[in-house]
Amino acid sequence: MNQVAKAHGISFVAAGRAVNQLVERKILTEPKRRRNRVFHAAEVLVRLERG
């Protein structure tokens, strides 16, 4: 969340809320581990590959 917050100039809490909303909407996939998490947007990547 720190990287998201820093990249967008928002607080850690706001970044967490935004990411949680994207996970709830199935846009991002949440990893199983809780520390140093990397979220994936598989459908976005598939669409980008298709062009």
Task: Describe the structure using short key phrases.
MarR family transcriptional regulator; 51 residues; globular; mainly alpha
- Major β-sheet, in short? none
User: How many H/I helices?
Assistant: 3
Total domain units: 1
Structural class: mainly alpha
- Please report the total strand number as a whole number: 0
Separation, N- and C-terminal Cα atoms: 29 Å
Percent helix: 55-70%
Shape, per Cα inertia axes: globular
| Overall pLDDT score | 90
Order of helices and strands: HHH
Instruction: Outline the low-pLDDT stretches.
Output: none
Beta-strand share of residues = under 5%
Rg from C-alpha positions?
12 Å
Organism: Luteimonas padinae
Protein name: MarR family transcriptional regulator
Describe this structure as you would to a colleague.
This is MarR family transcriptional regulator. It is a single chain. This protein has one domain. The chain has 3 helices and no strands. The protein has helices at residues 2-8, 12-24, 42-50.
In brief, what are we looking at here?
The chain is 57% helix and 0% strand.
